[in-house]
Design a protein that fits this description.
two-stranded antiparallel sheet; mainly alpha
Amino acid sequence: MSDHPASPAAGAHPKPAICRCGLGGFAQPMVICACPVHSPAPPKPEPPKKPPPPTFSDQVPEAFTKGFKDIWAGVAAGRSPVGLIADCRMLLAVLLTELERRAGVSAPSRGWFGGAPQAGMRAKIDSLVARHVLLKGVADLARRISQLEPGAEVNALYPMGDPAQARDYMNLIWQVADQGFEQDRWSRTGEAPLRVAPVAKDGH
């Protein structure tokens, strides 16, 4: 029979025991623990930080700067695309109207009943591209947005609006603001505008 105490059963908690092996010259108290060893859980990775909205200079209309921050936050939070597209459309109209004014684009002639015909968004963008105010890539992006114009038909698959369309629209107005206002300021002053990369969500 061994002088060592019997090993405790699995799952037992530490219990004091007496060792009589004689190696130390006298009985010595010892503690036997059969508790399973658990390594500490690895720390959870922190979620990636969302980039802040881009910073615009005072060359960009103030109404656009304020409105774009709300759209940026709405896209990041997954807000209803219908509202986001409507807000983008309103801000695009603000930008295009101001760019046409700066480029000296004359207003369309009035119709028979005194009402000024409204040129479509695509027509305005194409006109500004032809005047080298905007780049061709902006016009190409505008053609991919089916809901660019007011009253456009809504995709049956997305009755509340297509999230990809909302993101494309946000990137469109961002490019128009950057090319039409910030790049012009950059070419005159040599000061590069601040930029951040747009957020991609849901694989888009």
